Amino acid sequence: MRKKGSRGAKRLASTLLASLLAAAVLLPTAGAQTAGTTSFPGTPGAIAFVSERDGFANFDVYRMGADGFGQTRLTDLPGLSFNPAWSSDGSKLAFRNSADLGVQNDIYQMNADGSNETNILDDPSDDNSPVYSPANNKFDFVGKRNGDQFDIYLMTRGPDGQTAGLTRLTTSGATDSEPAISPDGKRLAFVSGRDGDQDIYVMKLAPEGPKNVPVKLTKNAVNDFGPDWSPDGTQLVFNSNRSGNFEIYRMKAAPEGSTNRPVNLSNNPANDSGPTWSPDGKKIAFNSDRPGSDGTNDLDIWRMRATDGANPTNLTDNAVLDFDPEWQPLP
Questions:
Q1: How far apart are CA 285 and CA 280, in angstroms?
Q2: Chain segment 128-166, per-residue pLDDT in tens
Q3: Residue 253 contacts by C-beta under 8 Å, 6 or more apart in sequence?
Q4: What are the C-alpha distances in Å from 174 to residues 144, 170, 177, 199, 232?
Q5: Residue 205 pLDDT > 90, yes or no?
Q6: Which pTM was predicted?
Q7: CA distance 226 to 23
Q8: Rounded Cα–Cα distance for residues 78 and 63 (Å)
Q9: What is the DSSP letter of 36?
């Protein structure tokens, strides 16, 4: 953790970086600090997250207990590591690494303890936001394989761990990002700007087409981001600025309407984003810039009750950026 008495120039630089990255997290765009996330049913294990605490502009993936204790660094690669995503059995973590500070992004996989960091999608294009399917040998990611266009792809891995198949899923011509695979592995929720603003869509986990037209779930003129499935697959949480600041909302996994009004769970004047459901469906972890006990309002990881947003608890309380939470499922 950076000491509060650091020199003025470094403090100013850190503040500027924090502001830029906070904006990137709270106002995601494909290729920035976007993240896919999917909760699988099971017993809640550790929470993976991203932090800058081991050096200025040195972002790594960490893990901690669901109560915030035992915060431990996992990644040990040059550059920046973001977007942690657990496998459905909780034994692996995929993540995005940028060795050249954002120009080139690759997808890596490691064991739950941080060992065996392996580049599993070594490609010259820009790839980010990995999420596993329940099968574990398949995952979605956002890639720029079609010129400057970000689309969502499905990758299958063979017995040797290398790519055995790659399928482009979204083809609208708009930027599609933040994939989330349903717990049964049959549906894909994602964010798209195909209708002008950023909204959440759902379709079958198959290529988009006449027999698989994405259904628009959020219907408003503001931006909606960060979908995550409930462990039973019936609901979604997401973040939206429909109330003037970013809040965490919960809704049925169906189009928004008179019988499906999104419920504001966070209900706080701060900016809240990046929700991830606990595997037992009882809690939601998220990013927030609300003030912590140390008086700072940088990004921290918080936890609240999934039904009504009650009992918000600050799990990481320090003067650096902590974000991108992802809850580990255990069998």
A1: 13
A2: 999 999 987 788 899 988 777 899 999 987 776 666 788
A3: 182, 187, 189, 202, 217, 229, 230, 233, 234, 235, 236
A4: 12, 9, 10, 12, 30
A5: yes
A6: 0.89
A7: 14
A8: 19
A9: -
246: CATH: 2.120.10.30
Of residues 17 and 93, which shows the higher confidence score? 93
Mean of pLDDT values over 11-36: 42
Q: What is the average pLDDT value for the chain, to the nearest integer? A: 86
Helix H or strand E segment including 77: none
Q: Buried b / exposed e across 265-282, counting CB within 10 Å, b at 16+? A: bbebeebbbbbbbbbbbe
Is residue 151 situated within a structural domain? Answer: yes
Contact indicator for 167, 154 with CB cutoff of 8 Å:
yes
Q: Once rounded to an integer, what is the mean pLDDT over residues 26-46? A: 69
CB 300 within 8 A of CB 294: no
Ordered strands of the 272-277 beta sheet: 272-277, 283-288, 300-305, 313-314
- Could you tell me if residue 2 is inside a domain? no
In a domain, 3, yes or no: no
Least Cα distance to 117 among 96, 101, 134 occurs for 96
Question: What residues make up the domain containing 263?
Answer: 8-330
* pLDDT over 70 at 26, yes or no: no
Is residue 276 within a helix (H) or strand (E), and if so which, with residue range? strand 272-277
The per-residue pLDDT for range 250-268, each reduced to its tens digit, is 999 999 999 999 999 999 9
How many domains, the chain?
Answer: 1
User: Which residue shows structure tokens 């990046």?
Assistant: 274
Sign of CA dihedral 74, 326, 319, 13: positive
pLDDT above 90 (res 81):
yes
- Residue 282 within a domain: yes
State the burial class of residue 174 (Cβ atoms within 10 Å of its Cβ: 0-12, 13-18, 19+).
Answer: middle
| Token digits of residue 214 | 């994405």
CA distance 216 to 199: 7
